[in-house]
Amino acid sequence: MFSFRASFWNTDVYINGQEKYAANEILTAYLNEADELLRIPWIGDLKRLRHDLMIEADMEYYRVENYNSNVWEAVKILDGLNEAIDRMPPYDRIYVRGHYMLTDLLNEYKELFNRAFVMDEEDEELSRLTQFEPDVSDREWPDPDLPESAKDFNAELADFFDCYLGLFAACREVKKVYAPFVTGILHRESAFPDSHVLAKMFRDFEEREGHPFQKMKCRMSSFAYQPQKDTDGEMIFCEQIEFLDLRSFLYYDFWNGLRLNRLPTKCELCGRFFLLEGGKYSRYCTNPLPDEPDKTCRDVGSKRRYDDRCRTDPVWQTYNRAYKAHYARYMKKKMTAGEFEAWSRMASELRDRAAGDLIPFEEYCAQIRK
After folding, report:
1. pTM
2. Which residue ranges make up each domain of the chain?
């Protein structure tokens, strides 16, 4: 029910052949919004209703009596979940025609329900049931074929509820596994990790946390290489996978994206996750500030971090003073633009060496002031 096809081409992901995302863009959205689904108090009730709506020949009386109210309790919970799901990628784009509802499933098995609710006053079968009571009177099935259809119904009902429970599990993994890996391990070098560094990060995290990634299962129904058109109408040759659930897609897309330097990370200013898409590494996102929409977190955060370093770190403090002195010489035309640019490159390299304890601090101070 929540399955979809993903086509991978370079750093792009096409969902169901049309909707285009960047690698790890969908996971980044869930890192920011997964709590919305987790906050809905539904998981315990949904597990209970999954059990109570199963149809059996020896159902307890209270389950038969409460069946209809349980159906509509489940419908209410699922409606709330569907509203939340419809706001999350990729479902916000691929479910524009609505969801397959619990009542749709129940109406496919009318023969399992009491005829008093199936037939109208003229003994004509209703086109669609709105009340549901299992027909298990006297603990005997009225038709010998019904036990088999009841098994089919129960299997479909279990799959139906498990799709929603799987979404809960996906959101829980985002919060309990992906987020700690991203915030605690992935960016500890403040750089895009190569394959060797990434392998070490993975090993360290798995050993420390009890191998959560290795316990995940990536469920696919098909895998192929297929040509398709990109958003410009050009033919591209894609790796095409039919994922059975969101959890499987997030797992595959995460590691595929990391190989391509598409890294989710958390902005050190606003606290929201954003996607680093190769190029220059940054600790800050490009979202506008709420009170200064003409500035971004990256504009303000980078300067704030620089100022903090210059205040507290002797290496950066020395660099900043030397930079200001040389910039003043340039502005007074005592240095040419080429000379100032050459000094800036030298000073940056010298600063980084001093920050890494590769040269003594006194030697650093003497050289950078030249």
Report:
1. 0.80
2. 1-280, 313-368
